[in-house]
Fold this sequence. Notes:
The protein is globular and about 50 Å long. 42% of the residues are buried. A nine-stranded parallel β-sheet has the order 6-5-4-3-2-1-9-8-7. The N and C termini lie far apart (44 Å). Residues 1-22 and 178-186 have low confidence and may be disordered. The protein has helices at residues 39-42, 57-61, 76-79, 84-92, 106-111, 120-130, 132-136, 156-176, 202-210, 228-231, 261-277, 292-303, 310-324, and strands at 25-31, 67-70, 99-103, 140-146, 189-193, 214-215, 217-219, 239-244, 280-285. 37% of the residues lie in helices and 14% in strands. The protein is of the alpha/beta class. Helix 8 (156-176) links the parallel strand 4 and strand 5 (189-193).
Amino acid sequence: xxxxxxxxxxxxxxxxxxxxxxxxxxxxxxxxxxxxxxxxxxxxxxxxxxxxxxxxxxxxxxxxxxxxxxxxxxxxxxxxxxxxxxxxxxxxxxxxxxxxxxxxxxxxxxxxxxxxxxxxxxxxxxxxxxxxxxxxxxxxxxxxxxxxxxxxxxxxxxxxxxxxxxxxxxxxxxxxxxxxxxxxxxxxxxxxxxxxxxxxxxxxxxxxxxxxxxxxxxxxxxxxxxxxxxxxxxxxxxxxxxxxxxxxxxxxxxxxxxxxxxxxxxxxxxxxxxxxxxxxxxxxxxxxxxxxxxxxxxxxxxxxxxxxxxxxxxxxxxxxxxxxxxxx
Length: 328
């Protein structure tokens, strides 16, 4: 039984929530930056974006983008080796105003499935403590809670209880840590990404809106039946996150895909509408294989009406030329 069966209205159109914020801040970047091989080898960024293997990647990346999504924090094998020093280094390598959106570890979302009975709040507290140097440096963007594809609407109680506990926990943690004074969980900006079509109903959006959690808007292959996350633009918080995963349908690698401008064009109007409703809109291109995300992020920035600097325009053309000579 659908736990939201009492709600009959399905979101099949773009929903606009009135807002006093006429124009939100826009940040565009890529999902990840530490791709240290060549495109023709393992889909890396050497040659297409980074000049050579000796290039300090994050520092170079931040010369072209003002935000990055950190995916490595999701994977247990990488996350377990990270320390506060990892995030101190990230902060020092980037200029003022740069933001990192950080993905919540898989232990919390995939292994424990947000189940508060399995001490996920303790895991979450350790996560916030570990990434705290970003917050102290004012470089923490959104905290991305990505559900596994198998996480259906039948488990909505897990989400509801987790968000309820998270709201109270965030208040306490914000007030007690690092000398910050806060009376609201808005001190952190959370975003939740659904990945199963059963969430296509109004209830989840109302739940997110209640806790001021952004619903992640995504673009992904049609065969995943997740079009409702791109066709339906639901603003549930005062910030928003859009993720372009790519549309590759060969194998499991969505992200090995280069969007053409015709595919990105419909998103221009959507982005303009979201900007009108939120204080901050973060856009990430996750089609990182072979540096394709770099090309699409710069192209999309230009499509949104921003004039690329000479340096950005040169990098875009060289990246397109480099990939154009390869079959990756």
